[in-house]
Amino acid sequence: MAQPNEDGTVYFELESSVTRRRENSSALNRHETDNEAVSTVDGYGCNGNDDIVTSVTPAGEEPPKPNRYIWFLTRYFVVVIVVVLVVVGACTAVTFYKKQLPDFADPLQGFSTRGTPIYKAHKTARDVLEEYSLVPPTVRNVIDKSTGSGPRTKRDIDDGEGICSRNNLNYATKLVVESSTSTSLLTSASLRGMCDFVDRLNIAFACPGVSVASRLAELRGKNCSQLDDDDAAYAWTLLDGCAPSYTSGKLKPPVRPEDRANLSESCFRADFVYNVMHYFADVGFDAKSHDLKYTIVYINYRDNRVTADTDKRFYQDHVEGKTMDNGIVRLVTVGFSDHYSVKNEMFNAYLIGDLKYFGLAVFLIALFSLMYLRSFVLVIGTFTNVLLSFGFAYFLYYYVCQMVFFPFINLVASLLLIAIGADDVFVFHDAWLQVKADHPTCSADQRMSKTFSHAIVSISVTSFTTAAAFLANAVSDITAIQCFGIFAALAIVANLAMMVTIMPAIVLASDACSARVTCPWSASTFGAFYRIPNAAYSWVTARVRSFFHTAIPAVLRRVWWLCIAVGLVLGVSALLIDFYKPALKPPTTKEVQLFNKDNILEKWDLDFKHRFPVEIEAANKPRNISVVILFGFKATDPGNRLNPDDKTKALSRDGDFDMKRSETQEWLRKMCNATTESAFADSRFSGLPCLVSTNDVTTLLIESECKIVKTPGVPKENTTFEDLCCVNNRDPKNLYYCLETSVGYRPVDSTEDSIRWKSIGSPVYDNIPASSSVIGYRLHVQTNLSFSGSYEDMRANYGVLSSFIKTQLESAPEGLRSGFLADNDFAFYDLQQSLATGTFKSVGLSIAVSFVVLLLTVRNVLVACYAILTITMSIACTVASIVLMGWKLNIVESLTITLAVGMSIDFTIHYGVGYQLTTDAVSAARTLESARRVGPAVAAAAWTTFCAGVAVLNCSVEAYRKLGVFLALVMVVSWVYAAFFFLSLCHVVGPVGGFCQIPCPTLRLWPRKHKATVMSVYRDDVASH
Fold this sequence. Notes:
Number of strands: 11
Mean pLDDT: 80
Shape: globular
């Protein structure tokens, strides 16, 4: 029943506790009768008929004392609190002062692979072009003497202040509007409302908006605000007759003469029909019904350049936080020419704005913690523990692990710490109250020793397994996920350190505080406010006690078979959903959803970008894959994999590569021919030359200039060049003149571009002026393989190219066998592959490590196997749930899946440790005792984490919203599986006695001379032995 404690708190005393203590007391007396050398005083030196296994003390010897740390902790807990606050606070302050605060200006930084073969190959190819040159030294010397070489500079762009280009709609800002009255936007009232909507914008740096209304006004020769029913009817007539011609493609510029002859001239008048159907009307527009639901208003800026800063200024001044509705039309979403940059610019603002939801999560957890712990001191201590853990983890992250990159998803660890920290405090506090109830005559240090031997064992197991699960993310190839795994693991370890140091001291301070009326935090001071009304609290505690003492045991006794059957069926079905159909699939687009679906910026990408033909045409524009094959270098990445800003260039050359060998040149020519003749090569580029010598390069440059000179219509200003250079038998004496005339007017990088795009392959030259050595070879081919966002399609394309290169390299001479495929077109495929394989690799590793930790701590094979089976089933069900919700396996989703192991393992482990620490000789009784003792704390932890997840569901940042969904989901699934599936397994076939127990040397919390064990377990029924 619920009993008040000394400090006014309430604990649950199990009905079987008193009975067990009496039985153990009589059993102990019988044991003493048989062994006269054993003292009747328990191993802790206090009278209380302890039900905990302790080494008995031989007669005549002093009872054992707690170790020095616990002895010091219980007597000088204030000193411990002060020291921890000072040390951890100093470490945190130094870190924040010395290290620059994280900048999330680019929230997707680190959301890419690093260290994979594809990444290494692409980075090496890119570094080769930056560090070396495709231009031979002889040509470079000519350019240097003629014009000088230098870095390429962008052509200056005339600002054109005050100039408005109303016809270029491709780079304009797009405002999607709809009718405020649910009528068609092609009515005269809606058209005038559209004009009024544009006029109200009054953007100083923008041109007048271009809309279907403004186009119609131009066609009719009217002011936009003067459009009437006749004008609307005229537009309807045009669209009725000509829209089918647009659908068939006959109106698409350039219009064929035969199509123009067969259509009415009105269809081409001012291109009105084409513009409306292509630029302004959504794909759902039906010209017959005249029902235009959505349309775009285009806004061009007054200068000729569109920058992210201008777009951001427009968004902040005219869109963000404003209701753009004039009663006739209203804004639905907005799309910018560089939409990705605008979203990145606004990310920090939304990130800060979402802190209120984190505050709500903290408030809900604090409120429930106050109801559960019944102590302001412990609630404040809980959140102090979380803050110290985060700060200490931040210190370890930067100074111990020497990390330099802090992705925004690392902030997720703060929410996880709040949930896990509250969980640990509940477990520790419950153990402390139970020890006080079972051993009322023990001293504080003896009670703390007993609490440590129970609660800290369980907390340590869950902490190490959770930290190991998070740390398993370090095997990922994605930088942001690696960094999060490391930081989250450090945070969990830091929380464990706080649970061993400052939290026990705060518990002691709370007890001491409650015993003094003058203490500002005492129950007597707060009076009625401190205490939840006893009637309400008693009612709640009675229902909770009934649930864990009656309901769950009844389920385990009567329908354990149903719990196991349902758990297995759901788990197997979930595995089929996860891996077979519909299965968790990689993303099909590079775009990452930054904000929730209701955000006005995100609506464009999610819902409206693909509703308009102009955007659909741009998105579906075919693009073929280009292939780069590099020889003479090794694919390496010497930079720091955990720092996306580290682009260290340290190219590793292949020492066996020698371009002077005739067999090398001959094989490279064959390789070029084989590549251009392959099935994947684009036939349009098959006639390009293969350059294997400096002479080949100079010939290409001169012949390229000859083609320009010989082009009909080009003025013959210099016939000398054509006479001396554009001949078959060119005199070597004229080489310098020919080169100077061909490339002397161009910078080096422009010449390099000419070599790159006008040949199949070319040598790579050292940039050292005195050197003319060829250090590598670059083969560049355009293919007919279409670039796609589909993982399966790109995997097939990569397989075709890899297989071809592997086959060709089998016959390559020495020095060319290390050639490799390198191109940026496969970067997204590399990300997809890392997500598809790395996620489940991390999950598998997490489960394996957790199993090992369980074996080392619980030391029972059966309990560990049951726990891993339960965790696997709960993870499968969690993943199946997000699959059915339509989630794709992107960065955030991958992160949540790997988090599932760390978050779902705690409850099962608490029940498993509780089962092992019970004393009954029957598995059913041990299961019920575990449910009674551990159940309330586990349920409280699940509820607080569930509330934290629900609190952040309204976050603007999509990663946090999905985290909230995940936390709420995984808490429900893992708690149900732990409380019913795992306990049902233990109820039926749980180990008893020493069955499947792994023998292990006993760790000791006490001085060795007293021979008492730290791994205290509930006393075996001595009478039964």
